[in-house]
Amino acid sequence: MRSNLVEMLDYISVANLLHTPSTASLFEFGSTDMHFTSALQYPVFVDGNNHAGKPSMLKTPLLRSMVETQLAEEARLLSNAIWLPLGPLAEEAVLHLAGKGMLKRNNILR
């Protein structure tokens, strides 16, 4: 997955924005230019199974609250970051924050 991600980021010139030959350098030990996170900070289980999107995190008050507090705080602290949601659930979460004015929509790669 990492090589595909690097290829995609390099293709859209993210490396140029960061003044580096390749975004592969973001994954090197000690790099401070990459921050990994999850829409839901803690493991979530539904009926003993890993949460796979049902019920929707935005339609479940506790999960929506986690997005609107924990993820929103990361968005506030990283206000100029480029956000790359990896998957439809992550995209749903960051677009939700953008819709509430908690994250700049222009900073989300889709």
Query: Which quaternary structure do these chains form?
Result: single chain
- The helix count comes to 4
State the separation between the terminal residues, measured CA to CA: 17 Å
Strand arrangement within the widest β-sheet reads 1-2
Query: SSE string, helix = H, strand = E?
Result: HHEEHH
What is the helix content? 25-40%
* CA-based shape: globular
According to DSSP, the number of beta strands is 2
> What count of domains describes the coordinates?
2
- Rg result: 15 Å
Q: Report the mean per-residue pLDDT as an integer.
A: 93
Name the beta content range.
Answer: under 5%
Largest sheet: 2 strands, antiparallel
Poorly predicted spans: none
Structural class estimated from helices and strands: mainly alpha
What does this entry look like structurally?
- This protein has helices at residues 2-11, 14-17, 61-77, 88-99; strands at 45-46, 49-50.
- With 110 residues, the protein is mostly helical.
- It folds into two domains: 1-34, no CATH class; 35-110, no CATH class.
- A two-stranded antiparallel ribbon has the order 1-2.
- The radius of gyration is 15 Å and the shape is globular.
Note the main attributes of this structure.
110 residues, mainly alpha, two-stranded antiparallel ribbon, 2 strands
Q: Would you summarize the structure shown here?
A:
This protein is mainly α.
